[in-house]
Structure formats: C-alpha cells, structure tokens
TrEMBL record:
It comes from Roseivivax halotolerans. It comes from the Bacteria. GO terms for molecular function: DNA binding; DNA-binding transcription factor activity. This is DNA-binding transcriptional regulator, LysR family. Belongs to the LysR transcriptional regulatory family. GO terms for cellular component: cytosol. The keyword Transferase does not apply. Residues 9-66 form the HTH lysR-type domain.
Amino acid sequence: MTELIRSGLKFSHLRILAALRETGKIGAAAQHAGMTQPAASRLLAQLETMLGTPLYVRHAQGVVLTEAGRTLADQAIATLRDLDRTHQQIGQIASGTRGHVRIGSVTGPSLDLLLPVLREIRVAYPDIQTSVNIDTSDRLAEGLIADELDLYIGRIPDQADARPFAIKTIGPEPISLVVRLDHPLSGRSGLTIDDCLPFDWVMQPPGGLLRRTAEAYLLERGRPLPRRVLGTTSILFTLAHVNETNAIAPLARAVASFFIERGGLGSRLSILPVASDMAVGDYGIVTRTEEALSPAAAQVFDLLGRYSRSKE
C-alpha cells in the first residue's frame, strides 16, 4: 500500500473500487461513492495504470473484477472500515465515552464512593478503561504531580505546596472503633471512650493520618493515649488481629461498614457505639490546577461529584 500511495493512490480510488466490488456496475458504484460515472471510470483507469494490470472485465450485465481487482478491493474495504472505526473511536475519546482514566483513592472513599462509581462507569461507559491505586494522600499527591494519576480521592498533604492542586471538597471521613463480636465491651450499655483505653489498640504506625486523628481526639478531651498500640498499615491484618484478640481498631467508617455490615466478617466483628464524632478532616477529589482533564477523566470526575452529593 505504501508504494501505491507514493504512486498517487487516493481515498477516492479506494472508495470507487470498494463500491465496484459491492455493486458490480460502474454507474451504481459511482452513485454509491457520490461521483459521476466518467469520474469513476477515470479513477479506475488511474488505478490500473498504477498497478500495471486490469482490475475488471466488462460484460453485458456490468463488470467482473479480476483477481487483482478483487484483492485490492478487499483491502480497500478493510481500510475504509478501519478508518470508519478509528473515526468513531476518536469521536468517543473527544466526547469522553472512551479512554483510560488513572484514579487514586485513600481506603475509605474507595469503598463507599469509588466502587459504586466504577460500577456505573462499567454500565454507562463500557469503553472507558480504569486503573485504581489505593494509597495514602501523600503518595497519591506525588503520583498526581508525576502524571501517574489523572485524579485522586483524598487530601492535599499538609506539607505539600498546594498551588499545583485543585480540590472539590466532599466532607469529613468518620471513624469507627471496631472489635470482635464477643469483645468484653460488646453490648455494654452507657459505653464511653474511657472504657476503651485499657485495651490494646491496632492503628497505623506513628504519623499516619488516621492514627494522628484518633490520638488528637483523645488528647483534646483530656484522655490518655492507649498504653499498648500495634502499628500496621494493613487493613486485612488489622481485621484479623481484632478478630483474634481483645484489641480495638479505629477504622474509616466506610471500611468498617463494608467489612462488617456487608462482608463475610459481619458475624465476627462489630462497631462499638462510642466516639461517633471521631472523624478525619475533609477529603475531596483532587486534580492538577494547570492541566485540564481528558474527556474520559472529566466524565469520571463528574460521576464522583454527583455520587458524593447524592449521599449527603
């Protein structure tokens, strides 16, 4: 095909030959291709000159393509079909119904916000491909600036230069205290935060946002910190440890609800009815200030925003 293009092959040549393959008549092929019959005959003659071989043979009912004509016509049909498909895909990309969107999220919102939005994307925009990175806001912010993410659900880190970031605030992230179902505090009436302090706690390592939030909650109310704390970044290990011991774990309420109320651990873990006002500060949908979202990423951004408002 490259040599033919150098010899002067045009799309009009492909269109008339493809139409001739389908109709078997030059007049009908010309009408199908939107040109006059003399123009069609001229294009076919040019093609035969380029190739140095006849492409069709006339007969009483019209024309019959030669083997060379059928070979080139089949290629012309395939090429035009591929171009139509490409044009459609470009239109989908421009309209935001096709593309690849790289999404980051902190753990809690990934369960109660991102999961349902991904389900909606799968149904409403099946040609949008997504990849998801679950991490801390610090790391997600680094990934956004490095162009490894298109957007993330989380917070702008306190120590970061906020100028490269834009955030659509959603709200605070509530925290629940999780224990095993037959924990000594389960079912106790009049439970207070003081009742929880003699037990071991399982939290993020020192410096983690959720741990800082839980510690600040206690200190602001004049309470001491738990004496024994197991530090881990693994939610799965946290849940397993709580299930096997009397430890207490502060977890994002979305995580606690997902694993306890809807998950397979529902019969083995429970949420203590205490410290219901404990919450991590506002989070939102974070993007880059100086770079517009791709149409597909903009669709995801809008869906996240709409879903978060519907939960209010």
